[in-house]
Amino acid sequence: MKLRKNKLTPLQFDPAEALRPELGLDPSVWQRSSSEAVRIRDLMRDDRSAMSGFVGLPHRLLSEYEAGRQQSELGRVFQTANRIQALVDRTVVLACNTTYSGSRALFDALCQPYWNDSSRGERGSKPRMVWDGNSYDNDATQALLHLLDAHRTPIAKDVDEDWSLVVLRDPGPFNATDAVLSAFVQALEASHVGDLSAVAQRIVGVVADGTNIATRFDQHPSWQRFHVPEGIEPGCSVFTTLGLIPAAIVGINVIELLQGAAWMTDHFLSAPFESNMVLQFAAVHHAWHAHGATTGRTLGVSSQSLESFGRWYEGLMETRSGTAQSELNGLTKFFLPDVRTTLLKTATHTDATQTRSDRIFHRVVVDTFRFDALVSEQGTIPQSRTEAYSDLAARLRTSNTPTTMLRIPQLDELHLGQLIQMMMLATEVEIRVQQLANAI
Asked: For the whole prediction, is pTM greater than 0.70?
């Protein structure tokens, strides 16, 4: 897979509305939080071990691919994706915990909203993709098996009737993915009348050692297995094979995805605080938390394609902070700003006794649409969105809500890679800044 030579435009992060003097944030608190964020960044930059996890992963994968191509990890990912694309028209992803939200965030953000309802030609001969294994939902799993015609055990006669299985299993105790795996393997075997070679071509696993599913793959050495890399922090596995294999199967350009993430890492490690969006994002949360004025955060995303990204980010904070939720200033909530009159009440928790919201509100806006503007009697959809956001901004200001703006030039691989890496880096900085504060 080659870079399409799309232009990378940096994201833009503006914390100004969270730092307005009338909100009452002590300037010394902001200055101290800023200095601590820079200090943590410098420590990470000078500590080679800090680059061994998710921080340095995009650079490592890209450099290994450039040096080794087919023998590299990305080379194996592309070979696997090409094989699955040629064999089947549907891929079932069995995923648990944060691996589910990470792979789903990539799919929902970068594929067309009605991908699975499009024809194979419209999908560029890439498979449809569906998920299971994230909950003990009997009806959901049975419905998916019925969709695959597993209850009739038909023989797959051509690509349009055929499907594959991708199993994502991170470390941890027995969970729903373990529970449903056998049912899907049996259905796949039945659709190929016990042809174990054909079945093996259609099963791919990214599986952590020591799990029940690892044992299952050991018993079937013909099933293709990738190993979950060690040293990747909980919630930060999006750019490992746990996220990249499903993405590559549906044709997402993972080279550009990693290019965007690598750019954000370079930006984080080198840019001064005044222009460093990672450091500013982390510092604004720590400052308001240290000020004792906020208990959480809200992501107001402008695109339904980013709804799964919001869920992933919520899971990232939960898994990274463990039981000490206060370390990350509470859990996030995310909303699509389609109902202006109710969104603010839901997001900010203001009432007549409060003079300021207890949550920081992040407006996440995608500037460019994939399709031409839809025209209505009221104008165009983009115009209506602009009016809605202007109204929202005014309401946030009136309620004294600390607010930031994160602008994404367009929703593609280069810019989503930036966004995801930015959030992982900022979360890491937040955790370390809080640990530093607790140690004093």
From this structure: yes
